[in-house]
Amino acid sequence: MSVTAAKGFTAAGIAAGIKANGRPDLALVVNTGPSRAAAGVFTSNRVKAAPVLWSEQVVKGGAVTAVVLNSGGANACTGPQGFQDTHATAEKAAEVLGHSAGEVAVASTGLIGVLLPMDKLLPGVEAAAAELSAHGGEKAAVAIKTTDTVHKTAVATGPGGAWAVGGMAKGAGMLAPGLATMLVVLTTDADVDAGTLDKALRDATRQTFDRVDSDGCMSTNDTVLLLASGASGTVPEYGDFADAVRTVCQDLARQLIGDAEGASKDIKVEVVNAATEEDAVEVGRSIARNNLLKCAIHGEDPNWGRVLSAIGTTAAAFEPDRLNVAINGVWVCRDGSVGDDRDLVDMRFREVTVTADLAAGDRSAVIWTNDLTADYVHENSAYSS
Amino acid sequence: MSVTAAKGFTAAGIAAGIKANGRPDLALVVNTGPSRAAAGVFTSNRVKAAPVLWSEQVVKGGAVTAVVLNSGGANACTGPQGFQDTHATAEKAAEVLGHSAGEVAVASTGLIGVLLPMDKLLPGVEAAAAELSAHGGEKAAVAIKTTDTVHKTAVATGPGGAWAVGGMAKGAGMLAPGLATMLVVLTTDADVDAGTLDKALRDATRQTFDRVDSDGCMSTNDTVLLLASGASGTVPEYGDFADAVRTVCQDLARQLIGDAEGASKDIKVEVVNAATEEDAVEVGRSIARNNLLKCAIHGEDPNWGRVLSAIGTTAAAFEPDRLNVAINGVWVCRDGSVGDDRDLVDMRFREVTVTADLAAGDRSAVIWTNDLTADYVHENSAYSS
């Protein structure tokens, strides 16, 4: 279903020859209207890839007619030539589709520091346009894969099925190797203006994609776009719409974690009883980024001392001797000291839940991460060579 | 030479039975005077082990007669009982040595969340006292090892050999598995008051131990002590003394990196042309903590894009299109884009230098780290189980 689950969109995915192995590497998503409202969120890394710099400007206009996405190269740290290449890509799509380049967003993913093969990419845009279809969502999702083992799509619908939000994603956010990137395109046939799309998208990403932290490494290319065609003719209630967008984002975010490179465990870090949501997020992220804990979980070792040492590096409100930690529901640490028998913890399944109780308030947050494995090291030490 | 290189100190290292494998696990260092001036720096982790809480108070008094150190257990996250155990350890040493417990520092290293076997430790303090010798420094250094493959000592002397600064260290700072800790004891026979020791020690650790960042994980037990006996009868020039302390700290810090678990590369991250030293340290630490870069270096892959993406997550002053990066002296990134041929980079040797030029000022800093390897994952996923 993907980006063509909602009415008013066509998509295509083809092999343009950007990837040396001949796999699909170019996707095109087109909004056929009647509305072209759009919003986007981008990496907060100060080193931004050329397509991010370009698409940020496009989205500021509040309208997006088409998105060109390529795998096989991130077009990051490529200087003025890289930016010209992104511009030329948008111009080519505009020319083929008969629209303005100022409404064409571009997203790229792959190795940093390598120029894209424009002699392959530009003809690819023409070829993809010829394949555009209201059933092309799956092929588009496949074409943006890099080291993803599966393509990722999700759909949610409004009350009575009056409208839909669909989406596709690639990458495992900051985990992707050398690689840059989580790319996400969401579409809806609800009739929603750009300002409302922006609000719904930011609310959703703050609680979903922003709380996926596979390896603490922030990409230069992260891009999440939300396009509205208005083709359903329905203006949704804001709450319903925001729920649908968040549901699709959460679904895709969970799929990213589930496909993270080299991972053998998906780790849900729940922080509860924090003084503020910010505290809960800070503590959750600190736990999620602790390499020693991630190794321990890989070894199915409920090493709660590593959780406490991670909490201790934060500025969150808590007293060390009131901290409690559960692993898969067993409170192995109580009041900052030894709790229930660690042998009671069953860590055989892929999903592991670490619960940190700060005993400092009533706020909470969840951060998702993965374990740290020898496979991660292997994939990421051999990628570009 | 170690902690007995300076006159006025005795030391011992024995096997007290704390470690199940029967290896040495208890060290005692005694200042025989005439001075007992001392200073210390401790982990900034808010979750502090019992011996850290105890020794911070001891050091505040400005005098330390003896230090009891054990491996085989960190006595961290052990609640009120853990603190009582540290207190009892100091009392036992005071009783055996005929001094006040208020001048006995305690340091522990090993697994977090496990009570120490006091029935082994307290008799061990007596046994160690019986072995005290002016030549006991090496044995003390051996007894504090955990997963260290070698014991670590260093010595520097003042002008004309009038006085000396010696030291021992264990651990690889924040890298040690599950494990807690870098423990360091420095001694000197120079006649220096506690306030001056504190200043020299803080100046030295800020530029040495604080800039070793193996895996970004901060211990609950880090302890660095500096004890002065005054036995040389010489009051040194401050500059000479501070230099000697820094030299010994730098030597020991480099040894810690060289023995980091699972590491195959020692990585020197140099940040140059920063606007401020703080900027240089922030950028250096961000690069040093980037798992993707650490994997790439393990694979001898000069993946400079990962350096740029790490710099981009900081708040330091820089313009993305003016950044330059060299790996082992080859400027593979110039002006934020592709620079010299990456195939020119030779990464076969253990030491690898990453140079980040921020082009924003004239300040610099060096952070040392290690690569991320499958061996690191193996050691840290199997340690406590």
From TrEMBL, chains A, B:
<protein>
    <recommendedName>
        <fullName>Arginine biosynthesis bifunctional protein ArgJ</fullName>
        <ecNumber>2.3.1.35</ecNumber>
        <ecNumber>2.3.1.1</ecNumber>
    </recommendedName>
</protein>
<dbReference type="GO" id="GO:0004358">
    <property type="term" value="F:L-glutamate N-acetyltransferase activity, acting on acetyl-L-ornithine as donor"/>
</dbReference>
<keyword id="KW-0068">Autocatalytic cleavage</keyword>
<keyword id="KW-0511">Multifunctional enzyme</keyword>
<keyword id="KW-0808">Transferase</keyword>
<feature type="binding site">
    <location>
        <position position="170"/>
    </location>
    <ligand>
        <name>substrate</name>
    </ligand>
</feature>
<feature type="binding site">
    <location>
        <position position="146"/>
    </location>
    <ligand>
        <name>substrate</name>
    </ligand>
</feature>
<dbReference type="InterPro" id="IPR002813">
    <property type="entry name" value="Arg_biosynth_ArgJ"/>
</dbReference>
<comment type="similarity">
    <text>Belongs to the ArgJ family.</text>
</comment>
<feature type="binding site">
    <location>
        <position position="385"/>
    </location>
    <ligand>
        <name>substrate</name>
    </ligand>
</feature>
<keyword id="KW-0028">Amino-acid biosynthesis</keyword>
<comment type="pathway">
    <text>Amino-acid biosynthesis; L-arginine biosynthesis; N(2)-acetyl-L-ornithine from L-glutamate: step 1/4.</text>
</comment>
<feature type="site" description="Involved in the stabilization of negative charge on the oxyanion by the formation of the oxyanion hole">
    <location>
        <position position="109"/>
    </location>
</feature>
<dbReference type="Pfam" id="PF01960">
    <property type="entry name" value="ArgJ"/>
</dbReference>
<comment type="subunit">
    <text>Heterotetramer of two alpha and two beta chains.</text>
</comment>
<dbReference type="InterPro" id="IPR042195">
    <property type="entry name" value="ArgJ_beta_C"/>
</dbReference>
<keyword id="KW-0963">Cytoplasm</keyword>
<dbReference type="InterPro" id="IPR016117">
    <property type="entry name" value="ArgJ-like_dom_sf"/>
</dbReference>
<keyword id="KW-0055">Arginine biosynthesis</keyword>
<feature type="site" description="Cleavage; by autolysis">
    <location>
        <begin position="180"/>
        <end position="181"/>
    </location>
</feature>
<comment type="pathway">
    <text>Amino-acid biosynthesis; L-arginine biosynthesis; L-ornithine and N-acetyl-L-glutamate from L-glutamate and N(2)-acetyl-L-ornithine (cyclic): step 1/1.</text>
</comment>
<feature type="binding site">
    <location>
        <position position="380"/>
    </location>
    <ligand>
        <name>substrate</name>
    </ligand>
</feature>
<feature type="active site" description="Nucleophile">
    <location>
        <position position="181"/>
    </location>
</feature>
<feature type="binding site">
    <location>
        <position position="261"/>
    </location>
    <ligand>
        <name>substrate</name>
    </ligand>
</feature>
<comment type="function">
    <text>Catalyzes two activities which are involved in the cyclic version of arginine biosynthesis: the synthesis of N-acetylglutamate from glutamate and acetyl-CoA as the acetyl donor, and of ornithine by transacetylation between N(2)-acetylornithine and glutamate.</text>
</comment>
<feature type="site" description="Involved in the stabilization of negative charge on the oxyanion by the formation of the oxyanion hole">
    <location>
        <position position="110"/>
    </location>
</feature>
<feature type="binding site">
    <location>
        <position position="181"/>
    </location>
    <ligand>
        <name>substrate</name>
    </ligand>
</feature>
<keyword id="KW-0012">Acyltransferase</keyword>
